[in-house]
Amino acid sequence: MPGARLVFAGVSGSPGSVHALRYAADLAREHDAILVPLLAWVPPGGDLAERKNPDLQLRQLWKDDAWQRLWDAVDTAFGGLPYGLRTWPLVCRGKPGQVLVSTASQGSDLLVIGTGRRGPLRQLLGRPVLRYCLGNANCPVLVIPPSELAQEAGHGLHGWAYRHRKRDPGKVGLPGSTS
User: Residue 146 and residue 152: Cα distance in Å, rounded?
Assistant: First the structure.
């Protein structure tokens, strides 16, 4: 990675992409590169549906929503923009794999992406963004597996319940506490 000038981190807001974003930030800091958190978006229903009935206000809402998802992921990863690191957040319209590959197009760039949750269904259906990036990128691609916590929370019925449970931070207590 010596000489990389831009470290792109594919961001979707998933726990795996947040983990990859943190890893990319560490690499960018270590190699004095610019961190580029990148979120790709496609209109609901796809580009074809949006082209049939174009609406500038809806298009702006979707773009604003994409920016909000990017800022939410950055806030989740770092609590705001990472201190002491040159950062260039970017939102682009298009399919994630194509956007990531076309944006991280220089040989000196580095593309960091998460693998997402593991499981039999995921293995059966594959990971199209990951496969596309690995097969088409002109720069090195670093694939970050999910964190141990994300793996643990993602398995079985208990994992489903854990992911879909609403939590109130004010009501969460530590075991043995009397609050």
Answer: 10
- Per-residue model confidence as pLDDT tens digits over 38-82: 999 998 877 776 777 778 888 899 899 999 999 999 999 999 999
Burial 19-47 (b: 16+ CB within 10 A, else e): bbbbbbbebbbeeebebbbbbbbbbeeee
What confidence tens digit (pLDDT) does each residue in 6-44 have? 999 999 988 888 999 999 999 999 999 999 999 999 988
For tokens 């604003």, the residue is: 64
Residue 77 has φ and ψ, to the nearest 5°, of -75, -40
CA–CA separation, 96 vs 100, rounded Å? 6
Contact 117, 19 (CB under 8 A): no
Tell me which of 3.90.1210.10, 1.50.10.20, 3.40.50.300, 3.40.50.620 is the CATH number of domain 6-165.
Answer: 3.40.50.620
Length of the chain: 179
CA distance 161 to 36: 33
How large is the C-alpha radius of gyration of the chain? Answer: 18
At CA 67, angle to CA 45 and CA 74, rounded to 5? 125
Taken in order 145, 130, 100, 30, is the CA torsion positive or negative? positive
